[in-house]
Amino acid sequence: MLGFSAAIAVFGASVTACVGVIGDADDGTGEAESLVLAAPALPRLTAEQYRNTLFDLFGPSMPKAPLEDDTKPFLFYNIGASSTTLSEFGVQQYEESADAITRYAFADPARRAALVGCEPAAPGDACVEGFLRRFGRRVLRRPLTSDELGRWVTVSQTLADPSAWEGLRLAVSGLLQSPFFLYRVEVGVADEASPGRRKLTGYEMATRLAFLLWNQAPDDALLDAAEKGELDEPEGVAVAAERLLDDPKARAAMQTFFRQYLDLGRIDGIQRDPAAYPYFTPTIADAMRREVELLVDDVVFESRGDARSIFSTRKTFVNADLAALYGVDAPGATPSTFVPVELPADGPRAGLLTLGAFLTMNAHETRTSPTARGKYVRERVLCLEVPAPPPGVDTTLDPPMGDPKTVREQMEAHRNNPACAACHQFMDPPGFLFEHFDSSGYYRTVFEGDLPIDSSGDLDGKPLANARELAAVLETEPRVGRCMVQQLYRHAQGRVETKGERLALEDLASRFESASFDFRTLLIELVTHDAFRHIGEEESP
Amino acid sequence: MKTTPLSRRTFLRGAVGGTAVALALPTLEAMLGARGAEAASTGPIFGVFFWGGGLPWHDGHGAPQAGHPDLWTPSTTGKEYTPSELLTPLAPFQPSVVTGLTPHTEVPDLPPGQSDGHMRGFMVAMTGDRIRPEGFDHPSHTLTALRPTLDQHVAKHSAFYGPEVPRFRSLVLGASNARFHDYGHWNAISYNGPDDLNPPIMNPGQLYDLLFGVAADTAGLKRRALLLDAVMEDAKSLSARVGAADKQRIEAHLDHLNQVKNRLDFSGEACAPPGKPAPSEDLITKTDIMASLLASALACNMTRVFSFMLSSPATTHVFSNLGVPNDFHATVHEGAWEHTRAGILYQMQAFAAFLARLQAVVEPTGGTLLDRALVFGLSEYGEGYQHSVAEMPCVLAGGANGKIRRNVHVRDPGGNWSKAHVTMLRGIGLETPSFGWNGGQTSEAFGDILV
């Protein structure tokens, strides 16, 4: 809810100028700036977080019962998870999932012995209680209160039919349905040093760290660190974060973030007519998404270069399908093997905005969309806000009938009509830079009917000839780094930033810059920042 | 005949309080009691049938691409009207239709984009209100409802079920998996309130298991139901610790746990199950399968409310079987009228297949399920080329136990959408002095249709 109310000011501010900076609303009150944090967001675990967490506890061959689809307002599942209410059927699915997983874990004597580590002699005995205490800490991400431990031990006794094992199974099933497992609860403790905000407890910090950096709940080592007070100060948080970032789980988690920030979900289910787009194989959409993931992994974890370089680098990763689409040599590439390649210096491609995923998901089935591509540059790469067309505006282009017309000619209507031009002059000109790439991301030199392609356009009035020149601009564009900080912050907090957090965003952006835009350093700066280690006071009911 | 079980909550609270003793099984079973089979009902059934993409545009929609005939509006009005081309598939079921309706809700200027038919038309037709302006984000396609959609308004209306709530307050179903946007609100038509939606069950196997899958271990089911009391204790303890907005979410979770618990109690005594269906990706076949399972559930009173999303608002379903190359949203946007006509006609054929399943079930009273039902057929706007909310489709199929006149065409150009809501709600016996909000409110009903 907070995220949404915060966004209103953004929209209110942005409409007058057509383009405003997301989250940079200025209501003109000129109040003194200080860091004012929002109340905690109570995110529910996303389906991926739920599964990742339980894989660790029960092994990856556990049953994967269907769960309710997550939503991602403002791009992020974490925001949907803290604003959307779970449906009744969603609750039933949690019940069925917990029942199926615990049946799997407890049906086999060897498996349950390995999980529990002792053999209950009687319902609710020391073996059962010891296990529930230990296991409950992993599930609830904190020690159980004595009331809670008593509740689950009692369940394991009263429902011990036909055996103590069945009682324990049901107690575990109950823990997996507990809202304290399914929701990330943050209460914090009063912070005398900073009135108006509360400091997260060690266990709450462990949870925040693990869900951000691993996309799952904390492991025992992280909970131990919390217990010892090691997460109470920034130094200890940094040590813990470095350990998490050294683990392969962090790579998967960052790919999950980038997939949302770059809106790659839109590539799912994209179809192209193979007669018109021969390089668009049935598996290429998956390959396009994988390519971006590998590129992100390389920049963030392998080469640790300037994170902004994902929009300008000539390095990429292709399988056989993509090598054919791009027309590059890729020795060793097969339909399932990706290999690193250096795109030719004199070629048309450099950076993510010349790769298949961006070009395809921002195009129509049968023609390109300079508006969609330009809008992506504005919104996703630069975090600028493009509002919806004003009421009553005819948003439809003349259908492509009669004489062959280029998309650019059709879109002249946007420039000629003042109502459209106000916004389209911000979207279309950068979008035209990609006109050499068709709806499948294939490079073309002429349109159908041998019409020449004009890929000229501009960004903020700076004339550019094509997508390569845009990549060169983005290589050093300060707004690209700020946009990454802002999106990471939203993902980490599970809500849209508030005005009171502007200082934190600026602070993080300048630290990101000081670190030469090394994304891993940004992650450490974020998790040790006051804004990540504290929450605002809860709004009164 | 139902036995009255002892309060299970008392039972478990006592246990949690520290006085627990391990109960012998027979005692436990006695305390649980047994839920009787679903009682027979003759009450009205209310359902929603939604299709995406509106209608093929014509001059009445105000679209600039002029000259296309109106294939929807019947040429005659009143009783036994002459069905139009697109209504012909529905003719065997003698639906009443209202044409000319449009939203009367006011649209705030800010944030912009709220007049868009995908949002405005959909929300008015389903809730009688506008979308929630706060947080409306057109570029990211983020929107939410201000209040429950009509199916949930009915399902949760205290006068609809009274004290005898069946196993499901409502069933929320769908057919096409195509989605315009990877965001929940474009993939569900049923809301309980803001940011609180009911994603449809799309998979016939999943629906079958929900309705008829009975665990052999019925004692195990009862233990699962009992376990939820302990889970609810946790939910209550959490609810006391969070802020107002989150408290609502947790309270909803708690309420859902209670419903699921009731459902587990019912699960041992399901009706005679039909055969398990084979999956199909053909939209009409899939509709037929889902409707047949739904009809079985309605016949044994598992519920009396449903919604069925044949395709979602702004559907991207590709009707490749009809020779339509592009997704349907792009098809209507690009002005491909013939393809639009084909896609809508096909969806009307699916609607007919759906109604046929309800008509095929003859109840002990001698009437059919469709005689007892009122099925509200709608789409999100009048047409999708311009997103016009003029001339929105409105179908009232079924007799609502004789309270809705069948086979009547009412023509009401520019008429307030919510007159249809008032008509339907009164038709299923819910006292409705007025309906609609933010400029859309009305107390009028269509007297030619409402008995």
UniProtKB/TrEMBL annotation, chain B:
InterPro entries according to UniProt: DUF1552 (IPR011447), TAT_signal (IPR006311)
UniProt superkingdom: Bacteria
Name of the protein this chain belongs to: DUF1552 domain-containing protein
Origin species: Polyangium spumosum
